[in-house]
Amino acid sequence: MKVSIFTDGAARGNPDGPGGYGVVIRYVAPSGQVHEREYSNGYKKTTNNRMELMAAIRGLESLNKPCEVDLYSDSKYLVDAFNQHWIENWQKKNWVKSDKKPVKNVDLWKALLRAMEMHQVRFIWVKGHDGHPENERCDKLATSAADGSNLLDDVELT
After folding, report:
1. Is 119 assigned a catalytic role?
2. Of residues 8, 20, 22, 38, which has the active-site annotation?
């Protein structure tokens, strides 16, 4: 099955303040009908990259059978980490960057790798706030989570 996952994190400009992530999962059922699931959650004392990772994990963990996944993110760091083979290099060096500094959020990176295990995942960068409708939708989800309102969990839209 072909699935698209759109993620967004919102640091809200303050690492000590509220933050959130938004996820939209879109798939086409065997009947040809398009389905979507939306998730949003709020977190405190975190960073935008951390929330993008959490959103990607949340989206992939929601798929209960092997899928071909296009994961869209406005985090160039997240997308580059996979497309430019940073992850493989970090693993080979025991999760240390080339400048001898430890990789941040190692537990989340490992959780993302576990979430990817049964899927064929392609990471695609979507420039943030460029009018791309799915990206804008995820941004609204993340912002609503950061504002502490409209928290959605496991809502399937038909």
Report:
1. no
2. 8
Measured CA to CA in angstroms, residue 71 lies from 15, 26, 95, 125 at distances of 25, 10, 23, 8
Please, which residues bridge with residue 4 across strands? Answer: 26, 70
Nearest to 28, CA basis, from 60, 67, 55, 62: 67
**Catalytic status, residue 107:** no
pTM: 0.86
Q: Among this protein's residues, is 80 annotated catalytic?
A: no
- pLDDT (tens digit per residue) in 133-155: 787 888 888 877 777 655 554 44
Which residues are within 8 A (CB) of 91 and not within 5 positions of it... i.e. 6 or more apart?
none
Look up 52 and say whether it is catalytic.
Answer: yes
The yes-or-no answer on residue 153 being catalytic is: no
